[in-house]
């Protein structure tokens, strides 16, 4: 869940037209990640900590969603659901990501705020 929605940003800016909605939507996750990094907190709705030594594959895609696969199939039991924000801690995919629809126990679909690199 984002810290602010497009509607909240528009209300703060007193913007009533939809001219800048796309731009605001692009900036929200980028600015949120900067805020979270600067404050060293991720404003979690629910703290779920999943740590793995192996079994995860990070797959970046230019044409569709990025995703993480889990050989151990623990994503659903960990409580990870669509719309949640997650933080990948460590590796080249470190940072803030939002889970998209279509979660399964072995697959997390997401929209990434930055470059999501393959680590298969």
Would you mind describing this structure in some detail?
The protein is an alpha+beta fold and 120 residues long. The protein has two domains: 6-39, no CATH class; 56-112, no CATH class. It has two helices and five strands; from the N terminus they run H-H-E-E-E-E-E. It has helices spanning 6-13, 21-39; strands at residues 56-59, 66-70, 85-88, 95-99, 107-112. It has a five-stranded antiparallel sheet with strand order 1-2-5-4-3, with no helix packed on it. The chain is elongated and about 50 Å long. It starts with 5 loop residues before the first helix and ends in an 8-residue tail after the last strand.
H and E string: HHEEEEE
Number of DSSP strands?
5
Task: Output the strand order for the largest sheet.
Answer: 1-2-5-4-3
Give the helix proportion (percent range): 10-25%
Give the class from helix and strand content and strand pairing: alpha+beta
The major pleated sheet works out as: 5 strands, antiparallel
Strand percentage: 15-25%
Q: If you compute it from the alpha carbons, what radius of gyration comes out, rounded to the nearest whole angstrom?
A: 15 Å
- Mean pLDDT over the full residue set: 77
Write down the overall geometry: elongated
Separation of termini? 27 Å
What number of domains? 2
- Low-confidence regions: none
Number of helices: 2
Salient structural properties:
elongated; five-stranded antiparallel beta sheet; alpha+beta; about 20% helix
């Amino acid at each position: 869940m984002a810290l602010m929605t497009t509607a909240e940003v528009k209300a703060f800016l007193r913007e009533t037209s939809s001219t800048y909605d796309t731009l605001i939507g692009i900036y929200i996750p980028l600015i949120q990640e900067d805020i979270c990094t600067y404050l060293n907190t991720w404003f979690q709705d629910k703290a779920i900590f999943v740590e793995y030594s192996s079994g995860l594959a990070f797959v970046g895609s230019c044409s569709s969603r990025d995703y993480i696969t889990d050989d151990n199939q623990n994503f659903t039991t960990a409580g990870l659901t669509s719309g949640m924000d997650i933080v990948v801690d460590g590796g080249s995919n470190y940072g803030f990501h939002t889970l998209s629809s279509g979660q399964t126990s072995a697959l997390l679909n997401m929209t990434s705020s930055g470059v999501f690199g393959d680590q298969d």
